[in-house]
Amino acid sequence: MNRKNFIKLLIGGGAMITTNQFYSWSKDLNEADTLMPVLFIGHGSPMNAIEDNEFSQRWHKMGQEIPEPRAVVVISAHWLTRGTFVTAMNQPKTIHDFGGFPQALFDVQYPAPGEPSLAVEIQKMITNPAVELDHDWGLDHGTWSVVKHMYPNADIPVLQLSIDYHKPAEYHYQLAKQLLNLRKKGVLIIGSGNMVHNLRMVAWDKMNVDNYGYDWAIEMNNIFKNKILSKDHKALFEYEKLNSAAKLAIPTPDHYYPLIYSLALQTDNDKVEFFNDKLVAGSLTMTSVKIG
């Protein structure tokens, strides 16, 4: 088999990516002396996408503070699958995966390009489990609501990696570790969810009260931060064993798993910084983490 046909076979037919694209990404991404930071971002309400508030302002500032990435890979709480997928299209669509919000939010488009060749690199990096290339998903609000503030020109390639919702937290931790080399190659990895996320217990009458949280939410926010600072990752991916409040903070793990991906990419030399460390409406936290 010649090299061209081999590449076409490797990427599932070659319709979405050229041989030249594949080789240019592989060759150009030399390992750097310093690692790109990793972020976990509490994304909260989709309205943060169009509101100029303290959370969106901090996302914008973060985009200016860290080195400009070659590409962004997001693990969003809103792409739950059976198996693991990575977006591999040239131009991912903007997904409006919500309801009941103003038309202005549905009008938002974030036309960042994809990077199919990077999707292939990720597919190669993650040897267990097998990762499939996806050409249908796009960018959901867990991604674009944040990244549009960080990179408003939409000129940096953005990909999403799905969450196999049928697997436990430790599975995701071990999977994410295989992405460490991306940090050496100028790729920004973002987990996007919320550490404390219980929509059933939202205090709607307290939505506009600054930093309002139930006692159990405050307790769990502090526990999570202390475990992150002490690098006790095992306790965090075995969160069910922490205490009874953990079940209130994480009634379902969809918004928590992105944190596990970010933590898995922490090295011994990485510093940890918290930002947007606030509670919202009693049962949500916007607490976010910069690693590195």
From TrEMBL:
Origin superkingdom: Bacteria
Gene3D superfamilies hit by this protein: LigB-like
Pfam families: LigB
GO molecular function: ferrous iron binding; oxidoreductase activity, acting on single donors with incorporation of molecular oxygen, incorporation of two atoms of oxygen; zinc ion binding
Alphabetical list of InterPro entries matching this protein: Extradiol_dOase_DODA, Xdiol_dOase_suB
Positions of the Extradiol ring-cleavage dioxygenase class III enzyme subunit B domain: 51-280
PANTHER family attached to this UniProt entry: 4,5-DOPA DIOXYGENASE EXTRADIOL-LIKE PROTEIN
Family recorded in the similarity comment: Belongs to the DODA-type extradiol aromatic ring-opening dioxygenase family.
Protein name: 4,5-DOPA dioxygenase extradiol
Organism of provenance: Flavobacterium haoranii
